[in-house]
C-alpha cells in the first residue's frame, strides 16, 4: 500500500512540475513576458526597468528555476495593477468559488446519480426514454445559455430568485443549477454505464440466485463495484466545475475566482490569471491523487497487487 | 412411484422469437441425481435458469409449469421467489471465479444466504460460514473467509460457491457445468465433494453437463437434450447400456474407450448443430441421423422406449423395456445397429 | 418490471446506416453548414448594417425597410442575419481546430504508441500535464498571451485540445501495434510510416472519429464561451457567444437577443452529440458515457 501511495505521489509531483513548465513556456511564448505585464501606456524606459525588476532579463534557465522556486514557496507574484500579492487576491475570492462549486456538485451528483441509477434499472421503459432525453438536453446546453435562460425565467419573468450578485442562500440557487446542469448529465451517463456493466456480470446472477433482492443488490453489491468510474468522473467534474465557474460567475456577477480572472485579462493583470490557472491545475492533480487513493481503498486487487495466495 | 421433488412440464423459452427450449418436461425424484446432458447450445442451461426465473433479458419465458414439491414456482411473485432462491433451491455456475463478487470477502458471500433467509446476525452467520467452508474442504477456513476471490484458485472458488449454495440446506441443488472450467484433477475432487454433501443431506441434484464421464460418475437418471427438446430419458444404467435414441448412441460412441486396441480416428457425429431457427421440420436430429427417413418429418413424441432382446441386429423380438426409459425417435428399435 | 442480470452479451444494435438517429441530426448540422457557407448569398441583410432608429425591436417588426424576422439587436442590426454569420464563426473555429488538433494529436499518439520507449514516456507525460489544467483556464491563459480574435481562438484551441486526440490514438495504437499482423509487417521490412498509415491508422480511425465528433461540439461551445467573455471573436463581427453576452444585459427588455443564438448553439451541439453517441455505439460501445 505504501509503495503504491509513494508511487502516485511521485507521479503527481512530476505532473505538477510539468504544469509549471508549461505555464512558464506560455509566459515566454511571445518572446518577452514583460509586454504581458506592462500597461499599454508604458514608455521604453519603463519597460526596461520593469523587465529588470521582474528578472526577465536573466538567462532563460535561471528564470525557470526561479519560477519553480517561487511556486514551491507558494509565491504567485505580486499584481502590478492592484499592487497586492496575487495569493491574497486569490484567497479573498476563493471562498465564493468554492461555495459555488460545492453547490453545483450537490446539484450534479444529487440529481445525476439517482437519474443514472434509474436509467440503468428501468431500461426499455417509457420513463427511461424521457429521462434520457432530459439528460441529452442538459448535456447540450452551454452553461452560459442555461444560466441566461434560468435568469430569464426565474428572475425576470417569475421574480422568484435574484438574478445576480451575492446575498443569502437564494442567490446561490440559480448559479449552482446553471453550473451543475452539464455535470449532472455526465454523472447520470457514467452511473448508468457503470451499473449496466456490472449488471451484466456473472456474480450478479449468482447473488440473485441466492435470493438477494434488487434493493439489497444495489446497495450492498453494485454500489461499491460500480463506483470506480463514478469516482473518476467526480474528480474530473470537480475541476470542470471550478473552470466552468469562470463563465457562470460572469453571467451572474458572482465575485469569485472566475470573475477576477476575466477582469484581470481586460485589465492586463497577467499574474492574476496565471495564478488562478496554476491553482486550477494543482487542484486537478490533487483530486486525481485522491481518486487514486479511493480506488485502492475500494478495490483490494489494486491494494494487494502482487500478494501471494 | 417415488415422489418427484421437481417437475417441469412443457417449458418453452424463446430468444428473439425462436423457441430455444421447446416443450421440455422432466421430473427429478427426491434425493436422486438427474443429469441433463447435451451439447453447447441445446438449451440445457436455459432450462435450469428457468426454474429460478433467472433468464437473461434476451430470453423470454413463454409457457410451462415448474413445480417444486407441492408449490407452483411460475405463479410466485418475485419477492416470494427470492425466499426460495438460495434457500430451498440453490444453483452453482460454471465459472466459479467470475461468479463471485470480486470486491467482497468470500466469507461474507457464503454467509449472505444465512442472513437473508435465517435472519442471523452477521457474527453468527460468519461463524457458520467458516464452518461450512471447512466442510467443503477449504483448509485454514477462518483466514480464507476474509480473503477475496482473486486470492483463491479456481477449484477453491468452486468450493466456496458450493458452500454458499448449500449453507441453507436446500432441497434442490442445480449444478450448471460445475466442473467444466476446472482442471481434471480438481474436477474429481469437486464431484466427490458434491456426492459427499448429497449423501449427508439427501439433497436432490439437477446436474447440467456435456461430459458423459461426469454423468456416469454422478447420475442416477439421465435426460438427453438436443435442439431444445428432450430426446431421451431414463435410468443411467439403461441409457448407457441400451440407448434408444440415435443421438445418445452416437454421443456415447464418441467417448474414446481405454480398451480400444485399434488405432482409429476419434469418432464424431457428422454435421454440426444448426443454429436456433434453422431447425429442420419434425425431428431436429434428422439431418445428422443415419437412421433418418421421410417419416422423420413428423415430430416424434417422447414415448416409452422399446428394447430388443439380444445384442446384434436384426432384432429377433421385442419385449417391454424399463418403464421409465423414454425416447423420442421413430426408429428406436434400430438404434442398436448404429456404431 | 423485468429485472434480470444478463449472462450473455447485450443484444446487438442495428448496423444499417439508415437509422434516423444518425441522419436526422446530420441533416440539422448540414443545414447549419449550408447557412454558414452561403451566408452572404442567403442572409437577408448585411451583418453590420446598423439602424439606430430600429434598435431592440421584437421579432416581426419592420423599421426603415428592415424586416426583422427574429428581431433586432442594440444597434438595430438584423438578428437573423447575424445568426447566419455567427454560424460561420462557430463552424469555422470548430472545423479548423478539430482538424489541426486532431492531426497533431493523432500523429503524436500513434508515434508514441508505436515507437514506445522514450518517445512514449515524454509524450504521455506531456499529455498528462496538459490534461491536468482545466481546459477553459488553459484557453483563457493562452488568449491572455496571444490576444483575442478568431484566428487566435483557433490557435488556442489547437494548442489546448491536441492531447485528447493523442491520448486516444496512443491507447488504440498500443492495442493494434501488438497485433500479430503488424509485428509480421515490421518483420518483413515494412517501414514505420507504411505500417502506421496502412495498418494502424485505418483501425484507430473509428475511435478517433468518436472523439473528434464530441470535440467538435465542445469547440463550438468553447468558441461561444470565449466570445461570450469577450476573448474570442471581436466586435463588430458576429458570434453567437458575443450575442449572448449582449443579450444578457437586455433580458428584461429584449429577450430575443439572447434566446435565438442560444437556441442555435443548443441545437447544433445537440445534433453533434447525437451523432457522437451513434458513432460511439457503432465503434466503441465500451467507452464511458454511453
How far apart, in Å, are the first and last alpha carbons of chain C?
A: 23 Å
Number of strands of chain C: 2
Could you give the order of the helices and strands of chain B? EEEHEEHEHHHHEHEHEEHHEEEE
Distance between the termini of chain B: 35 Å
Oligomer: heterotrimer
Major pleated sheet of chain B: 8 strands, mixed
Q: How would you sum up the major sheet of chain C?
A: 2 strands, antiparallel
Strand content of chain B: 15-25%
Helix content of chain B: 25-40%
Summarize model confidence as the mean pLDDT of chain C: 83
What is the average per-residue confidence, as pLDDT of chain B, rounded to a whole number?
84
What does the radius of gyration of chain B come to? 21 Å
Please estimate the helix content of chain C: 55-70%
Largest interface: A-C, 67 and 54 residues
Outline of chain B, from the CA principal axes? globular
The poorly predicted ranges of chain C are: 1-16
- The helix count of chain B comes to 10
β-strand number of chain B: 14
Beta-sheet strand percentage of chain C? under 5%
Which structural category do the helix and sheet elements of chain C fall into? Answer: mainly alpha
Q: Outline of this structure?
A:
The complex is a heterotrimer of chains A (309), B (339) and C (290). Chain A is mainly alpha-helical and 309 residues long.
Topology diagram in text:
The complex is a heterotrimer of chains A (309), B (339) and C (290).
Chain A lengths: L1 H26 L6 H4 L6 H11 L5 H13 L13 H36 L4 H15 L2 H15 L12 H30 L2 H8 L4 H12 L1 H26 L4 H10 L3 H29 L1 H4 L6
Helix pairs in contact in A: 1-4, 1-13, 5-6, 5-8, 5-11, 5-13, 6-8, 7-8, 7-11, 8-11, 11-12, 11-13, 12-13
Chain B lengths: L3 E12 L2 E12 L3 E5 L6 H8 L7 E10 L2 E2 L5 H7 L4 E4 L13 H13 L3 H14 L5 H4 L9 H13 L5 E5 L7 H18 L2 E6 L2 H7 L2 E6 L2 E7 H6 L4 H9 L48 E2 L1 E3 L9 E3 L5 E2 L12
Parallel strand pairs in B: 3-8, 3-9, 6-7, 7-8
Antiparallel strand pairs in B: 1-2, 1-4, 4-5, 9-10, 10-14, 11-14, 12-13
Helix pairs in contact in B: 3-4, 3-6, 4-6, 6-7
Chain C lengths: L19 H18 L1 H4 L19 E2 L2 E2 L11 H37 L1 H16 L2 H12 L3 H28 L2 H8 L4 H38 L10 H10 L6 H28 L7
Antiparallel strand pairs in C: 1-2
Helix pairs in contact in C: 1-3, 1-10, 3-4, 3-6, 3-8, 3-10, 4-6, 5-6, 6-8, 8-9, 8-10, 9-10
